[in-house]
Design brief:
23% of the residues lie in helices and 29% in strands. It has 423 residues and is an alpha+beta fold. The strands form 4 sheets. Strands 4, 6, 7, 8, 9, 10, 11, 12, 13, 14, 15, 16 and 17 form a 13-stranded antiparallel β-sheet that branches. A two-stranded antiparallel ribbon has the order 1-5. Helix 4 runs antiparallel to helix 5 and helix 7 runs antiparallel to helix 8.
Length: 423
Amino acid sequence: MKDLSPMLGDLVGSRMSPKVISPSDDYFDELYDEDDEDNLESMENHGSLITHLLSQLRIGMDLTKVVLPTFILEKRSLLEMYSDFFAHPDLFVDIAEQKTPKDRMVQTVRWYLSAFHAGRKSGVAKKPYNPIMGEIFRCYYDLPGEKTSSEESGNDGPVPWCDKSNVAFMAEQVSHHPPISAFYAECYNKHISLNGYIWTKSKFLGLSIGVHMIGQAVISVLDHEEEYILTFPNGYGRSILTVPWMELGGNVTISCPKTGYSAQIEFHTKPFYGGKKDQITADIFGPNDKRSFCNIKGEWNGIVWARHSQGLTQNEVFVDTKSMAVIKKQVKPIDQQLKFESRRLWRDVTYNLKNRNIDKATEYKFQLEQQQRDEAKQRKESGTAYETRFFHEVGEHWVYDKPLVKRLSNGAAEINEAASCDS
């Protein structure tokens, strides 16, 4: 894709301060206050309901079709939660800025290890809303210190109202059984994108709940024609009878088929006795190497340290999520959103959860879920296939319809065609 940069460079335009949706313009921001801890409580306060629910479960049972009580919900959709992977957008776009394949793999690992802590909003584990079919969530992130175009961006990407210097994000619920969410992010100016999907499969484990995150994501660094394929850790809700808390566990991989660089990361679950929470270890390998050139360990929700096989003999700070500012996502106000966008779709549930009106929240939640069941029944009776909005299935994978690589290629072809006509 290197040959595209000169031709597209003139299209970026002049620069000035970015257009930002301020909290005062988005009255619904209060309902999504990410620092809100006022509803932290023990499950013991709902003892009879929890006991009744557990009496219906058995070890290993798939929880996909189990209706969980509304009071354990997190006041936002799972689709919005996935956008938190990009709460440090500068680390993501810096992958494309690195000069060597080795440095790009190291930066990919650095971004990956920073991508989980922002999704943990409180000390008590809460369950996000299960997205309904066709639901979407869109937002964008400003890059720290990056100026934006003074002219209309003409953005034809996933978030048309953002600037080409922003990191744009879109997610869509593309399947209900099994529950699959597809998501896509890009920074147009940096020529980097990510396309991913996750199938969540929940199981009852006794005193905890396990959520298997089945799927993958592919980071495309277009100017180097590289792809970085990564997988996801599993999630666990522990101590569900008292004060539930969340942790990640399992082995994940990051690999670049073109360069041969790879990484192996293990998220360690807390031992039953002693030990620390949120621990990770990782190794980064060069092409065909059995010995890593970088060893990493630490806390994904805190400080992660790295030791290189060459150069520094002491550990250096690799990621420090305690000192890194989380960039606020920019979301359109509710009254400007489409009816199937997450915050507008779930706003009555969210409002009543915020105001502790659990019965009313449950009622609105049931209405949404019943609507989904009715629509599925109508499609079945009429023999109509469901059509996704922005993603399509390729084999076992879900792909965004208009990825950056396709749009850049089409744009370059149009420029070449215009140039040939002029000559």
